[in-house]
Structure prediction request, 529 residues.
Amino acid sequence: MAAVDHAHGHEHGHDGHGHHPTGLMRWVTTTNHKDIGSMYLWFSFAMFMVGGAMSLVIRAELFQPGLQVVSPAFYNQMITLHALIMVFGAIMPAFVGFANWMIPLQIGAPDMAFARMNNWSFWILPVAGSMLVGSMFVPGGASGTGWTLYPPLSIQMGMGMDMAIFGVHLLGMSSIMGSINIITTILNLRAPGMTLMKMPMFCWTWLITAYLLIAVMPVLAGAVTMLLTDRHFGTTFFDAAGGGDPVLFQHIFWFFGHPEVYIIALPAFGVISEVIPAFSRKPIFGYTSMVYAIASIAIISFFVWAHHMYTTGIPLTGQLYFMYATMLIAVPTGVKVFNWVATMWRGELTFETPMLFALGFLFLFTLGGFSGLVLSVTAVDIMLQDTYYVVAHFHYVMVAGAVFSAYAGAYYWLPKWTGHMYDETLGKAHFWLTLFFFNLTFFVQHFLGLAGMPRRIPDYALQFAEFNKLSSIGAFGLGLSQLLFLYVVIKCIKGGKKAEANVWGAPGLEWTVPSPAPYHTFEEPPVVK
Ligand code: CU1
Prediction:
């Protein structure tokens, strides 16, 4: 079978061992990590556009006070689907795409360990995505619960909720299979001499993220399965009338939900840890402390979940414990930020688009981290719970954190992927537009939250009108700016200046293979000294 040959990389060239499918069938049957990585990235960008369009419906409704664009029920569906699609459809698959493309290249492996399972992991995603998007079109509409799917509302919603639950199950399966693949690849397929402590930081972040995923995706699956049996099979896990408790769902959900934040953030840290050293012409500062910081963040992330639940009536001692545990995460995160800054210190800095996005990440993610520290304080959080301050906070973490670093990674590796240079002028324009409109959209939401504007509400009191107008203008600008990225990528794939093998003069095994990276990467495994 041609597919198996690809998987093990022994069989090079097209020498008559079965035929190689072309056109659509190539993509459906591919077991090549680069094809699969590209599919993940394209899927992710498509979902980013869908989820983004939904956020524009939200921002259009909030452009001015009064109900004008959509009904409150549809607005709630947009709130729910925007979040689910962005988290599970856009951000997570983007970083799995980077993992597929770059981990084998960075550790000198011929492909991912389980090449066929890799194909399956990807092809589950479009089905799961259709479940989420399709839930809008069934009687009663999609789940209007928000992405957290809290009961009792999620028990009462119509069939759209069942589709969302099934979609979440499928996404979990895909993530678990992807994680098994990543762990096995990193632990078993490293080139001779590539010890764990010589691995590029991106591989380290993914190794630890994969363990996080395997630990918490089943917890989410359990939570939504209990929801499903409460809905249809007469159980009362979350129903007080039968002896259950809706707050139990929150505990289980956030035991998944908080590590999920780091599932998104750690691979983003990994990309940043590749880009900043490359554009500083220095090795990363404090490699070992970086590895320990990633591991500490991952471990502590399991013990802070109830900081999302300060207002559910948990005991005061519990509130205090979760407050201090949450603050503790700022320590290893601070180590990372310090190391990134120290890497740049006295480096020979240049500011091409990947570096600009990395610096944007550094500045804005740190801001998001600080507003997170503000929210970790129980007394403050009780005031700010369910306000736009929280919305502003997690968009600084998710957009400025995950999306900025995904762009940093995409511009950084585009020459490796396509063999062409992207248009630097347009790339920089994309960065500055994104930076400006991102802040216009979300910075003002801090003020709205502090003034008491609640989240997930389609209408608001008159005193919030100005900041909402600014935020909506920012959102439309931000959305339109992302089309520029699509144009830059297509232009880069179609042509442009030929990229040298190591365009950035960066260290790392991936830069020793030619650009574009060949379909089969290594004839013989390289030896790393
Ligand atoms: Cu959290």
In short: Residues 1-17 have pLDDT under 50 and may be disordered. The pocket of copper (I) ion is lined by residues 258, 261, 304, 307-308 (CB under 6 Å). The longest helix spans residues 72-107.
